[in-house]
Request: fold
Amino acid sequence: MAALTRLVGLVALAASCVSKPALPPDHGVARSWHERTDHPGPNDVQPGMLQVPRLVYDPRRQRVLLYGGHQLGAPATDSMFELDPESGWKLVCTTCLEQASPIGAGGRASPALVYDPLGDRVLLFGGDHFVTDVFNDLWALSGDTWSLVPTTGTAIPTPRTFDQMVFDPTQQKLWLLGGYAMSNPRSDSYFLDAQNTWSKAPIPNMDVVISSPGVDSVYDPQRDRVLLLENANVPSSELWQYAANEWQLVAAHASATDRQEAVMVHLPDYDQTFLIGGFRDMDDTDLIAGTEVLVGDHFETFDASLPPARSAPGIAYDASRDVVVMYGGHGLPDGTTAPDCNGNHDCQGTWELRRD
Reply:
């Protein structure tokens, strides 16, 4: 844990932004959203319009990676990109999993994607082709090379998509939380240890659904807890924590706006947990703009309008630059929610939440 803390603690000041009114003291460090305006060369392949891409920060290599996702009605992509802070996204591979094994052909949408400090690797679990199969395989990225990971255990997770993975340094294991399979959201959870062995993990209760195209679970080192925002088949803002070896309800309505397909991200050096996006209703047209920050047991408005309304974008915290990176997501059909979204729900903007 000490090594991970040192890695996360390598912070560089981001470029200063236009000043804003001072935040309430309990909101933490003032930050502003900015959409990147990169200018790729004519031969630079870009991620493009993507729903449910997955982002991950690799602290050892100090880089943000983007993998997978899909466009409306299209199969998933098997491409991976790395964000160059100076010039934008750079293509790493186009058939990333397929190069490692034929099982990976077709790529994945909505897998779990997490950095594993025990093995100094990025792990990917499950996901789907969006138009065909759902999977329960485990993949590891070492450097720029993917490999299929054999696993053992007394309880192997069933195939699923929309699942979450979080590293818990107290347990010295990774949580696999919920997912969606066979038209049913999941309420189960699993542990994965350094020997790639699966075991059952505790759940809040059978009524708590852990399934989201967004990313709504994080680890909070200040309080030694895993935070989980319930994502059911109806909008919710029920907030749970795993602390002191048990799941505990933090708040039945942690946000004034119940939602689905939101994303959360935690900034350990500043003790800030942000809640971003999602939608309010069942037909995903009432999208939510803005950012909320966790204060005690509830979220309060941090930025009322930015980022523009969307659900299920990719999200990661780049500790080396002290910047939250967000990409893509699901916008309204007419594309009016943001200039980076088209008429097919797909978005492609790269947004960064930087210190003022």
In short: The two ends are 29 Å apart (CA to CA). The longest strand covers residues 346-355.
